Amino acid sequence: MKSIVLFNPKSGSVPADARAKLTAVLREGGINGADLIESDPGNCENQLKELADMAPDLFVVWGGDGTIRSALTIVGPITPNLLILPGGTMNLLPRSIHGEKAWDMVLRDVLKGPKLKSLSAGEVNGDRFYCAMMAGAPAYFAEARESVRRGDLAKAAAQTGAAIEVLKTMHLQATYSDGYSFAGTALPTSSFVGAIIGSLTKAGRGMEVASLANPTTTGAMNVVWTSFFTDWRNAPGVEVAPATSLDIGAEDGGDIPVIADGEHMQPAPHLHVTFVENASRCLTGSE
Fold first, then answer.
1. What residues contact 6, with CB distance under 8 A and at least 6 apart?
2. What's the mean per-residue pLDDT of the chain?
3. CB crowding 151-163: b at 16 or more within 10 Å, else e
4. Where does 3-112 sit in CATH, by number?
5. Model confidence at 182: pLDDT above 80
6. What is the dihedral of CA 274, 202, 69, 100, to 10 degrees?
7. What are the start-end ranges of the E strands in the chain?
8. What tens digit of pLDDT does each residue of 117-131 get?
């Protein structure tokens, strides 16, 4: 059995002795001689492609949300043997797939009883995400959140001030289609527009779009800090609807900041979001 593990030792929650710990858990599961390879941050996508071309029987990727999103996009559609492990700070993607399990428990469970899971996705201007995307003011609040996590409170305060200004001045206009009537239904004009995918939606499947009408600083920060994992959608002023596509533009025609699965993406004056069924696949434990 050929096994490859790509891990990022500099990722948020990957320990310094990651190689030794990986080796121990793999041996415990009966896998010896796995190729343990450190990720190359400057060449991650090509590295993933090259390793996938080796057709491993098990391809484990342990890193942050950005690395995992790339793995699901590049490797997931072409192999049924991809396993992603939580190694980042937020771990949006692994939590949506494996729940709150630690990386070693996920690995043990999959080695005992692997189960193939199909994943849906969204695409924003051609770039895929598997949990959620947020356009507008949340992208600025997210920068402040990361500064808080790094302990740079002065920078976080400045970024929060800038985010509050954007919250008051940015006006996004969004229309969506449900795939049945194909009508362009409008969401409330807001500085906050988002889309939620799959298991995070109320229905547990498909895509939902959301707008936070008249957003307050507290309301916007709550959404960013919880990253869609709490039931903020029941809060006053939030409008949520099922959709298959979403179009977002700014009244002033300027570029719109956007984050998807916790990662900043290329801003643009227009954002086109579509739902993709069966976009990728990966392994989960049968337990």
1. 37, 38, 39, 47, 48, 51, 59, 60, 61, 62, 63, 67, 71
2. 85
3. eeeeebeebbeeb
4. 3.40.50.10330
5. no
6. 180
7. 3-7, 35-38, 58-63, 82-86, 114-124, 127-129, 132-136, 172-177, 185-186, 192-197, 207-212, 238-242, 245-250, 256-260, 263-268, 270-285
8. 999 999 999 999 998
Assess whether pLDDT exceeds 60 at residue 232: no
Strand order in the sheet with 172-177: 127-129, 114-124, 270-285, 245-250, 172-177, 185-186
Task: Tell me which amino acid residue 254 is.
Answer: G
Chain centroid, CA 240 distance in Å = 19
CATH 2.60.200.40 fits 127-279, yes or no: yes
Q: Which residue has the tokens 């004056």?
A: 269
Whether the model clears a pTM of 0.70, i.e. scores above it, the answer is: yes
Domain ranges in the chain are 3-112, 127-279
Instruction: Confirm if 160 and 141 have CB atoms less than 8 A apart.
Output: yes
Overall average pLDDT of the 58-86 stretch: 92
* Dihedral sign for Cα atoms in the order 69, 70, 75, 78: positive
d(CA 53, CA 4): 11
Cα–Cα distances in Å, from 78 out to 8, 44, 54, 145? 22, 17, 12, 35
Check pLDDT > 50 for residue 229.
no
pLDDT of residue 18: 92
For residue range 93-106, what is the model confidence (pLDDT) as tens digits?
A: 888 899 889 999 99
